[in-house]
Amino acid sequence: MDGSGLPEVRSTCAYCGVGCGVLLRPDGVGGLTVRGDPDHPANHGRLCSKGLALGETVGLEHRLLAPRVFGQDTSWDNALQLVADRFSAAIAEHGPDSVAFYVSGQLLTEDYYVANKLMKGFMGSANIDTNSRLCMASAVAGHKRAFGTDTVPGTYEDLDQADLVVLVGSNLAWCHPVLYQRVIAARQARGTKIVVIDPRRTASCDQADLHLALQPGSDVALFNRLLARIHQTGHVSAGFLDRSVGFNEAVELAQLDDPDETGLSPDEIESFCDLWIGTERVVTIFSQGVNQSSSGTDKVNAILNCHLATGRIGRPGMGPFSVTGQPNAMGGREVGGLANMLACHLDIENKAHNAAVRDFWKAPNMPQKQGLKAVDLFRAVESGQIKALWVIHTNPAATMPDAGRVKAAIKNCPITVVSDLTARTDTARLADILLPAAGWGEKNGTVTNSDRTIGRQRAVLLPPGQARADWDILAEVGRRMGWTEAFSYETPVQIFREFAKMTSLAVSFGKDLDITSFSDLDDEDYEALSPTRWPTTPRRSDGRFFGDGQFFHPDGKARFVPVTHRPPKATPSEQFPFLLNTGRNRDQWHTMTRSGLSPRLSAHLAEPYVDVNPNDVDRLGLSAADLVELNSSVGSGIFRLRITESVAPGQVFAPIHWTGETAPSACVDALVPSVTDPISGQPESKSTAVSVRRMHAAWYGFAVSVDAASPSSEYWASAKTTNGYRMELAGKQIVDDWESTARYWFGLPDAEATVVEDPKRGSYRIALTDGQRVLAALFVSRQPITLMRDYLATFPELTPQQILSGRSSASSEVCGPIICSCYEVGLKTIIRAIHDQHMISVDDIGDALQAGTNCGSCRPELADLLTEHSKSIRNKQKNCPQEQPA
Ligand SMILES: Nc1nc2c(c(=O)[nH]1)N[C@H]1C(S)=C(S)[C@@H](COP(=O)(O)OP(=O)(O)OC[C@H]3O[C@@H](n4cnc5c(=O)[nH]c(N)nc54)[C@H](O)[C@@H]3O)O[C@H]1N2
Ligand SMILES: Nc1nc2c(c(=O)[nH]1)N[C@H]1C(S)=C(S)[C@@H](COP(=O)(O)OP(=O)(O)OC[C@H]3O[C@@H](n4cnc5c(=O)[nH]c(N)nc54)[C@H](O)[C@@H]3O)O[C@H]1N2
Ligand code: SF4
Ligand SMILES: [Mo]
């Protein structure tokens, strides 16, 4: 305690797989403050912008407070009996494979364990798959092919000790910011070099020694060239060749691949190979640019082949490193969350494994074959095979490829159960039975991060309304279906102990997953559990695998997997000439149901956008700030144009975060067809053939409002602000009566209206008030609107007249003299943003404020401001993460 109220509680961040430790202090009225845990081995006190803003996302806004059945609030008793009855009836009538769960790498290990036990051991089907199929499946499959087990060999300390870090398909600076900070710290301390392999120039390139902007999908060709060069230059580790099988075949195939497929120059390729081969301590980090591909598993093995060949694996400062995306992607793999696995890294189709799990669970009904993987699972929902579906902690109607089709399938499923924090998601809106889950900060359990460190999440707030923990909901359904004994859990520690004990099965089959030392953990030990990396076996005290040449295939040896370049399935055509790449923004988490509640996080990149290269912009006759329509073979979308050389000609990039709730026409997965990797079943989310053209809007609009609104225009995108919401809009149809339209959109039929109109210019402005306070204001024009958006977002403090002028005399006090005239962004606004958001590049300013993104003439001025104002920040935060406030 530091004397300011309730004591601090140690927990783990809600978001990414870095698994940072946080210290939480509840304020006693439902909120909390957050700081990094200085003693946590993952982050040593650092946090990124998302972790720091956790306190802004725990409010009651949008929370689901009671179970709902067919749209009506009801009791838990009713809702859970109905779930149990409908699942039992489906199984009785159509067999176990007529039911399915679709779950999430964000569940706690305890939740995940119970879901998996219920489906695989008791309902008797393996139809439980998870959003990890869209995320880690190729890494899992690649690891198993090479190592005989799905195990990440290295630890975070390897990043501190490496001399070269290669980022393949990983925008670490934005997606694993605290790990990126560790790499930057190593660069400062020991000169660690950084190479980024990504078709797109990302924030992770800012400090890179080399950026290889390869052709999308050509990673295998590049790593095959590296393998051939390792062989040619005699850098093969003889010791490791003895401990492996298949080297010659892998090299032969590698030599046949044409490095030109990468689109890189021979110089670029050779400098990369020289650097990699010449640096003993090399860590190759890979993420979704590798996994989310129709050749994802082969890409993984192409990378693993190079580390195996040189023996650079499982030793300090070196190894291949698959970073996990979600906070418990790793834990989910441990408890067998995927449709093709059993708990504890055991295999469904291995008779001995299957029988051992059956005996351990005393399970009546084990499936003998693998279940449906995500894409096939939703196809089975579509075809009517699945009669009852339960979606937990994920939003597939927005994040599965071919999202429109998935949405329709879920809608037509005879019974859909959804467990979520909120009813406001694209998936929750389709639920027949909607169950209120307790969220991060309200429930207890464990998560495993990217380097196998098990950490505790601890409850510091009471679940609101009737919300309950996911494990608790699942266990009660198990009991109501008749399996009283097997699901008699009353606390998460009972589940954790059972799982820890179960890892003795893995040990007995010679597998690596071993946390048996936790089998007898008492309640207090669990409460006090400090971050622990598995295996907890004493002989592996440095926490690494495979440095000793011991692998987990039956002969104890590793496998080289011969692989060959296969381009992405989508080939640009006359109809769809561009390749659409997708990914993440720094400050938002997936479908924004939590991060989108933070005004601070929502200030960074507040609108869905598509990045297009300037050459293509000219060719297509587009201009800055246009809205553009993308079309693919399966769907379409509307995005704000950003002109940037970060994408190559012929490629475009759009982020994944917008949904029906925040920008219905900008859900990228509506465009992505469901092409999958043949081995892992992981979708190719990063290469879709699309067309790009200007949207011809009859009008453009900007609005601010106290409450969220869902206008019926072709395009709208809303973002949270301190005072409510701000919204960009556009429509193709001329609107005759703007006043009624505005009243309808904002749900303010009786508000007082103040209007300023200039019909000749097609400009219309309306402020709606309750007599005193402005509740909403809408600005419409025939042209894209230039307004002081930042200033208008302070609207509750302004009079209708001030608002409608779009700027006021006071505005120069708030915003300062205008620097960017295209978007009317003032000096003070820019300086504030540089300080508050720790901006380091002109693009950062553009991302947050749009300044400098149109004509670009203010960019030199912005650069000067940055030099002047970010220096003081840099000095203050040496060794601190980029986004940490000084
Ligand atoms: N801020 C933020 N952080 C997150 C998340 C979030 O939503 N927001 N989500 C978390 C989750 S679940 C995950 S899985 C991770 C994802 O973390 P990352 O994988 O780092 O993130 P992405 O932006 O999906 O994709 C990474 C990069 O792959 C590149 N890429 C596309 N095609 C190719 C290719 O063919 N080859 C190569 N080499 N690269 C390619 C893209 O241009 C992109 O820059 O992030 C986690 N962290
Ligand atoms: N095109 C394209 N598509 C992609 C990707 C991509 O890069 N490109 N990335 C893919 C990847 S890697 C991932 S991981 C997925 C992520 O996609 P999703 O998992 O679908 O996205 P989230 O927004 O994280 O959904 C989590 C849901 O759980 C709810 N929730 C939060 N806390 C709790 C809780 O404690 N209990 C319960 N029951 N619910 C809770 C949230 O409100 C939210 O609705 O997207 C995938 N889709
Ligand atoms: S890097 Fe950021 S989002 Fe990821 S766990 Fe740490 S604080 Fe949370
Ligand atoms: Mo992910």
TrEMBL record:
SMART domains: Molybdop_Fe4S4 (SM00926). One of its GO terms (cellular component) is oxidoreductase complex. It is an enzyme of class 1 (oxidoreductase). Keywords: 4Fe-4S, Iron, Iron-sulfur, Metal-binding, Molybdenum, Nitrate assimilation, Oxidoreductase. Residues 6-62 form the 4Fe-4S Mo/W bis-MGD-type domain. Its EC number is 1.7.99.4. GO terms for molecular function: 4 iron, 4 sulfur cluster binding; metal ion binding; molybdopterin cofactor binding; oxidoreductase activity. One of its GO terms (biological process) is nitrate assimilation. Pfam families: Fer2_BFD, Molybdop_Fe4S4, Molybdopterin, Molydop_binding. InterPro entries: Asp_de-COase-like_dom_sf (IPR009010), BFD-like_2Fe2S-bd_dom (IPR007419), BFD-like_2Fe2S-bd_dom_sf (IPR041854), CT_Nitrate-R-NapA-like (IPR041957), MoPterin_dinucl-bd_dom (IPR006657), Mopterin_OxRdtase (IPR006656), Mopterin_OxRdtase_4Fe-4S_dom (IPR006963), Prok_molybdopt-oxidoreductase (IPR050123). PROSITE patterns: 4FE4S_MOW_BIS_MGD (PS51669). Its cofactor is [4Fe-4S] cluster; Mo-bis(molybdopterin guanine dinucleotide). Belongs to the prokaryotic molybdopterin-containing oxidoreductase family. NasA/NapA/NarB subfamily. This is Nitrate reductase. It comes from Ruegeria meonggei.
